[in-house]
């Protein structure tokens, strides 16, 4: 972490050095499987409904190893995947080649903040999932994402929900951690630097004239299980209940992540 006048200065977090850790610790777990299933359900509903099954021009910002980008390309859409991690981007390219999807995909090695200078145009659908919580200037990042949308475009935004992080730690009995504002002296490698309060996100979206089409909680039940082995042993039952309840309150607001579909107000 950089220092300014002797004090730590918050910095954006990148994952150029731990692509393999992401593959094993996130994408290969029940947490990752639920997240991917929820996002695919929400995006399928959006594409079949709002977009009436038309082929789309899609931008996946911070798309990592390309799970969703490859899925959407396989559904017939043109997808641009942008990520700051070269190792993750290489993994995505390899998967695209092995799946014969290279012609439907474009890969850009850059970070979200580079988008204005790249001048790659506007998109019908912009994805930004589990990225905002690693960025310091979050409201500015949202403004950049909005600028990438066509007038009728949709932003798919998923962010790490600080209220759910607080609730889960209370359930675990981590009272000192909660009292300390969910801060520790040394950050765990995959623990988000800048978890978001939903009230802040709502205020920023209102300032940017972005309105919500839908709200979903991601992992509304999984992260509160007392018997952790049930996530693996009874995964299908758990996933079914996540999908059944995660668009309804209060569950939509206590998911570890919050997934919003947003459009520009007319």
Automatic annotation (TrEMBL):
This is tRNA 5-carboxymethoxyuridine methyltransferase. It comes from Pseudoalteromonas luteoviolacea. Catalyzes the methylation of 5-carboxymethoxyuridine (cmo5U) to form 5-methoxycarbonylmethoxyuridine (mcmo5U) at position 34 in tRNAs. The keyword Membrane does not apply. Keywords: Methyltransferase, S-adenosyl-L-methionine, Transferase, tRNA processing. Belongs to the class I-like SAM-binding methyltransferase superfamily. CmoM family. The keyword Mitochondrion does not apply. Residues 59-156 form the Methyltransferase type domain. One of its GO terms (biological process) is methylation. One of its GO terms (molecular function) is tRNA (5-carboxymethoxyuridine(34)-5-O)-methyltransferase activity. SUPFAM superfamilies: S-adenosyl-L-methionine-dependent methyltransferases. Its EC number is 2.1.1.-. It catalyses: 5-carboxymethoxyuridine(34) in tRNA + S-adenosyl-L-methionine = 5-methoxycarbonylmethoxyuridine(34) in tRNA + S-adenosyl-L-homocysteine.
């Amino acid at each position: 972490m950089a220092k300014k006048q002797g004090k730590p200065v918050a910095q954006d977090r990148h994952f150029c050095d731990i692509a393999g850790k992401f593959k094993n610790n996130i994408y290969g777990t029940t947490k990752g499987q639920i997240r991917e299933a929820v996002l695919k359900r929400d995006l399928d509903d959006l594409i079949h409904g709002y977009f009436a099954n038309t082929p789309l021009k899609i931008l996946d910002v911070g798309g990592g190893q390309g799970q969703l980008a490859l899925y959407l390309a396989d559904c017939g859409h043109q997808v641009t995947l942008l990520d700051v991690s070269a190792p993750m981007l290489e993994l995505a390219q390899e998967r695209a080649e092995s799946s014969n999807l290279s012609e439907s995909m474009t890969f850009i090695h850059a970070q979200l903040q580079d988008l204005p200078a790249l001048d790659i145009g506007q998109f019908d659908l912009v994805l930004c999932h589990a990225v905002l919580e690693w960025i310091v200037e979050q409201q500015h990042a949202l403004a950049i994402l909005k600028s990438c949308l066509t007038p009728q475009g949709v932003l798919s935004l998923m962010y790490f929900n600080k209220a759910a992080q607080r609730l889960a730690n209370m359930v675990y009995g981590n009272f000192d951690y909660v009292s300390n504002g969910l801060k520790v002296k040394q950050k765990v490698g995959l623990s988000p630097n800048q978890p978001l309060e939903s009230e802040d996100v709502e205020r920023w979206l209102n300032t940017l004239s972005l309105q919500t089409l839908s709200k979903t909680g991601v992992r509304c039940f999984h992260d509160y299980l007392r018997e952790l082995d049930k996530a693996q042993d009874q995964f299908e039952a758990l996933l079914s209940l996540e999908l059944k309840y995660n668009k309804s309150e209060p569950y939509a607001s206590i998911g570890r992540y919050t997934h919003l579909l947003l459009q520009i107000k007319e």
